[in-house]
Design brief:
Elements lengths: L3 H14 L5 H26 L9 H4 L2 H26 L3 H31 L8 H33 L5 H33 L1
Helix pairs in contact: 2-6, 2-7, 4-5, 4-7, 5-6, 6-7
InterPro entries: Cyt_c/ubiquinol_Oxase_su3, Cyt_c_oxidase-like_su3, Cyt_c_oxidase_su3-like_sf, Cyt_c_oxidase_su3_a-hlx, Cyt_c_ubiqinol_oxidase_su3, Ubiquinol_oxase_su3_dom
Membrane topology: Multi-pass membrane protein
GO cellular component, one term: plasma membrane
């Protein structure tokens, strides 16, 4: 039988062997660097938004109804990811996997809309080389799309890890929480894109 002193020593030993994870804090730092990246791209767009080089403006190109639908899909994906996190905290693997799968499908739908818009604009000769306005537009929106793609790949990896895990422990929940921060961050960035790029250009 362990004495109080022995139990305390064992607890201290376990604490040193398994120090608390700082991954969530580290991920917050990563998101701050992403904020700087997107802030820079927004600043470039603000400078270039009226540099049309005789080409079409955003008012001529953007389909606000289609972009609004695209925005609704991404916002809905944040809600479904929230349901996945509720399932994770309740230790319900099945619920987590179902909601992650739905979130993945919504993310894929968002990317489909985005790629369709790009393909349509390029087919009409309005690619990124057409003007400074379009160069800054394609760079900003495509950078966000690349982030969404990375998030979806990460989501598949977490789904496989969740499926293989005997139970949802602290490590699995922590990984899901990091992706949750990333996914919601992309939502916030897209709201800014929708407001300052699409709506402002049309108005």
């Amino acid at each position: 039988m362990l004495t109080k002193t022995g139990a305390a020593a064992l607890a201290e030993h376990d604490h040193h062997d398994h120090p608390p994870s700082h991954s969530v804090f580290g991920f917050w730092l990563y998101l701050m660097t992403d904020c700087i990246l997107f802030g820079t791209l927004f600043a470039v767009f603000a400078v270039m938004q009226n540099q049309f080089a005789g080409g079409p403006s955003g008012k001529d190109l953007f389909d606000i109804q289609g972009v609004a639908m695209e925005t609704a899909v991404l916002l809905l994906s944040s809600i479904t990811y929230g349901f996945a996190m509720i399932g994770a905290h309740k230790q319900r693997k099945g619920q987590v996997l179902v909601w992650l799968a739905i979130t993945f499908l919504l993310g894929a739908t968002f990317l489909y809309f985005e790629l369709h818009e790009f393909a349509h604009m390029i087919a009409e000769g309005n690619g990124p080389q057409r003007s400074a306005f379009l160069s800054s537009f394609f760079t900003l929106v495509a950078t966000h799309g690349i982030h969404v793609t990375f998030g979806m790949i990460w989501m598949v990896v977490l789904m496989v890890q969740t499926l293989k895990a005997p139970e949802l422990g602290d490590r699995e929940v922590r990984r899901l929480s990091c992706l949750s921060l990333f996914w919601h961050f992309l939502d916030i960035v897209w709201i800014c894109v929708f407001s300052f790029v699409y709506l402002a250009s049309v108005i």
